[in-house]
Amino acid sequence: MQGIKDRVAVIGMGCSRFGERWDAGVPDLMVEAAYEAYEDAGIDPKDIQAAWLGTVGSFRTGQPLAQALKLDYLPITRVENACATATDAFRNACYAVAAGIYDIVLALGVEKLKDSGISGLGSYEPPGSDVAPPVPPPSQFALAATRYFHHYGIPYEDGKRILAQIASKNHHNGTMNNKAHFQREVSVDQVMSAPMIAWPLGLYDCCGVSDGSAAAIITTPEIAKSFRQDYMLVKGLGLSVGAFGMLRDDWDFTSFPENVRASQAAYQEAGITNPREEIDLASVHDCFTITELIIMEDLGFSPQGRAREDVEAGAFTLEGDLPVNTDGGLKCFGHPIGASGIRMIYEVYKQLQGKAGDRQLKKADMGLTHNLGGRPGSFTASVSIFGRAD
User: Does residue 83 have an active-site annotation?
Assistant: First the structure.
């Protein structure tokens, strides 16, 4: 089987400001992200041959993208796949280019949640969605936290402090990102003393609800060279959808098998055998602090049950050996579902180019993005790996 490795390149990306965007409608957010991507790539909108739109609750067809960007009569595919929606739109666009069907395409994710009246924390599925959970997301992941603490014999205060360090780290990174919804420091003590949402997860253990959009221009490496030298190569794409999840009587809540399968597929395509050593940065789905902790183990960055040791050692900070959520993550951007995956790719893209400003890493040659979402009974996980052109 021929994989995706080095068969497609990203030559331009854009990302709107995330937050309570009362000043912008869905079309405005799409224009904000897409036109930054056009300018970054140095292309004209008429160069786009096809587009993929990721969104969960905003609309059901690709027509609003055509209208907002004036992509008249182009093939536009609307994609929805739980919290992996944006990444799956990107993935499908990559496959179309790799197959030789198109030369230059657009992948864009968007979601406008604040006008919907939604006030939940962590994530949101629109009424009537087939991925709508029977219990609120904080409650779902609180089950994972309590079970994780019990399974590994971690006292509540110790476990809570570990999760608080994750939240504080991500908020620190977000202070250096002017596109993030939340841009202020939150101390470990503040996290631990915040109001409880779903025990043991407090207010700062949960990501917020935001509006936002992100876009990517995808082409072949051969074409990319004619546009710029610092383009980004796609190294591996993994997607895993579980059939049973929480309904399995042998599942212990301490790992998400979909994460493991998606990462294994992406690593195999990218030729990665030691992710902790070969990946320079990761942007993962920290919808809740416990999720980030478990993800570190599922992706092979930490041994099972020992991610807490890496957290306490500062391994995942900007100064650590594997920085995680360098842009602030979902904790600082919120989670406009259809946009989050490409927003994560945007951060890896900037880091690999050396254009991440104050949060720029000294070494950024290989980056990873990850999403996890769904409902009890079926989770969807995506893992994407990117490398510098050189």
Answer: yes
Q: What is the pTM of this model?
A: 0.95
- Residue 59, judged by CB atoms within 10 A of its CB (0-12, 13-18, 19+), counts as middle
State which residues form the domain around 35: 9-117+211-233
Find the DSSP H helices in the chain.
26-41, 63-69, 85-98, 137-151, 156-174, 188-193, 221-224, 257-270, 275-278, 289-298, 307-313, 329-333, 337-353
Which one of 15, 83, 94, 207 is the catalytic residue?
A: 83
Q: Does some domain include residue 126? A: no
Query: pLDDT 10s per residue in the chain (390 long)?
Result: 679 999 999 999 999 999 999 999 999 999 999 999 999 999 999 999 999 999 997 688 999 999 999 999 999 999 999 999 999 999 999 999 999 999 999 999 999 988 765 544 444 455 445 545 556 889 989 999 999 999 999 999 999 999 999 999 999 999 999 999 999 999 999 999 999 999 999 999 999 999 999 999 999 999 999 999 999 999 999 999 987 666 667 778 899 999 999 999 999 999 999 999 999 999 999 999 999 999 999 999 999 999 999 999 999 999 999 999 999 999 999 999 999 999 999 999 999 999 999 999 999 999 999 999 986 557 999 999 999 997
The residue from 171, 285, 335, 370 that is catalytic is 335
Same domain for 355 and 254? yes
250 and 309 in a single domain? The answer is yes
Are residue 267 and residue 379 in the same domain, yes or no?
A: yes
Distance of CA 100 to the CA centre of its chain: 27
> Scanning the structure block, which residue is given the tokens 């040659």?
365
One domain for residues 251 and 280: yes
Residue 280 lies in a domain: yes
Helix or strand or coil: residue 240?
Answer: strand
When divided into structural domains, the chain yields a total of 2
